[in-house]
């Protein structure tokens, strides 16, 4: 969309209720539909300027008490990547051992990491000990700092997809071992390990659904109390 379609930041929308144009809302809905957890990457390098734009989306995220507790490590060295990959492979083997029969066969067929191919890899942490924000909103619910990081990752994810890039969230890991390998401060808590790059192919449905691992619910259930 051109710059004339949306008002500059800090100005009022022409719409009386502040809503964005319908065309924008349609594109936003498409963006969310096409956001996928990518496991299959091309090895092409990611443009650094594009990656920087996407990372800037993190700074737009809300955070409890304005604590901005996200801490980002770029995993570039062979040693760090090898440690992370070995961590995944060990955790993946242990997870496979927890299944049996057809479910084990299906699990073994899943590609749960793009760590061998993805050109950009990040470990994103929450700094539970941050003094920023002075504890506002986190005294009764300290986990809100971690939720804030997840919110920032979601914005980053959408920004990547808008640029034609994919993100894969690797959760089959031993977080404590990874933290030791990366030598992070003791107050940091791993939120996720992320593979980023150009996807081999695009889909509007989850891969786990396409491979028959699980069926996505078609409707949202809301209970009243």
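^ Assign residues to that structure.
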């Amino acid at each position: 969309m051109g710059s004339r379609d949306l008002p500059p930041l800090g100005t009022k929308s022409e719409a009386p209720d502040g809503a964005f144009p319908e065309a924008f809302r349609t594109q936003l809905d498409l963006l969310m539909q096409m956001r996928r957890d990518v496991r299959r990457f091309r090895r092409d390098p990611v443009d650094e300027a594009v990656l920087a734009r996407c990372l800037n989306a993190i700074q737009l995220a809300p955070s409890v008490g304005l604590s901005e507790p996200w801490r980002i490590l770029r995993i570039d060295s062979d040693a760090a990547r090898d440690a992370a990959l070995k961590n995944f492979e060990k955790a993946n083997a242990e997870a496979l051992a927890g299944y049996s029969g057809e479910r084990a066969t299906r699990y073994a067929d899943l590609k749960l990491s793009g760590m061998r191919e993805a050109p950009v890899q990040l470990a994103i942490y929450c700094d539970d000990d941050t003094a920023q924000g002075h504890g506002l909103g986190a005294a009764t619910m300290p986990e809100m700092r971690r939720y804030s990081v997840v919110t920032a990752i979601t914005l980053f994810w959408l920004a990547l997809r808008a640029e034609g890039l994919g993100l894969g969230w690797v959760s089959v890991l031993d977080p404590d071992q990874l933290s030791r390998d990366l030598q992070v401060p003791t107050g940091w808590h791993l939120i996720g390990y992320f593979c980023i790059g150009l996807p081999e192919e695009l889909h509007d449905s989850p891969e786990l659904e396409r491979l028959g691992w699980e069926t996505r619910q078609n409707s949202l259930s809301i209970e009243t109390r």
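The beta strands are 70-74, 120-127, 166-170, 188-197.
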